[in-house]
Amino acid sequence: MTTEVGKKINAEHPGTTGSLGCAISEAVEAAVKNEGYRYVLGSVLNQVLLHQTVIGLEVQTALKKHNIKPDILIACTGGGSNLGGFASPFFGEILRGEADYKIIGAEPASCPSFTRGVYKYDFCDTGQICPLAKMYTIGSQFIPSANHAGGLRFHGMSPILSELYHQGVFEARAYEQTQVFQAAEIFAKAEGILPAPESSHAIRAAIDEALKCKQTGEEKVIVFNLSGTGYFDLYAYAQYNDKTMNDVIPSDKVIEEALAKLPKVPNM
Length: 268
Ligand SMILES: Cc1ncc(COP(=O)(O)O)c(C=O)c1O
Known about the structure:
The chain is α/β, with parallel strands linked by helices. Helices cover 45% and strands 12% of the residues.
């Protein structure tokens, strides 16, 4: 209730618990209204992915050093900087015809931009004060359910990743949060590392791919990005352990309503 755009969003979505799209609008307003302030977006935009490629370059170097050729590469996706940063050096190899990898983006079923979105121009923020971007989106007016614990609560997806997904260069999967926390628990018990809920989407996909290999008897090298720790998310872990965590998947109607509010621009 302290920003104009926040008040507008509250009026349009009474009782909202917010989203990354809301936070972006409020941060831009705070930067514009305060002398000497600047706003820097930490995900989604192509230059952020470029910056994050330090992760993928390091992975690529480490794999080469140990003479390991990955078959499958997996990272979670919120706005896309995590998968983009991790996988871009490998996308480069695929696009230059130097190698072939199966790359998977793991997103939450509660905010399924890739798997249920459309590839159109949309606002990057809920308050609609940022420029438009062509991206996979479920609509800037979509606000994910408050019960989703992790940070992957963005309605759209980075333009570079959206184009690569559109071209079929990689695949995406959507996971419900209880299956994500189940994977997180398995990982924590096996590795002694408490993973972030966001990263645990990638762990879920990695476990599923490994289980497929177990069934088929194939041997594959699966590399996933463990993007953060879960020490800030102990409340969500407690909910999972107490069995009070549940899954909320938006209905087609909710997504259609958000998509009906996309800006009207010629689809290029
Ligand atoms: C620990 C962690 N990993 C990955 C991500 C996803 O990053 P991106 O939204 O840039 O795809 C987030 C985003 O909130 C995060 O907190």
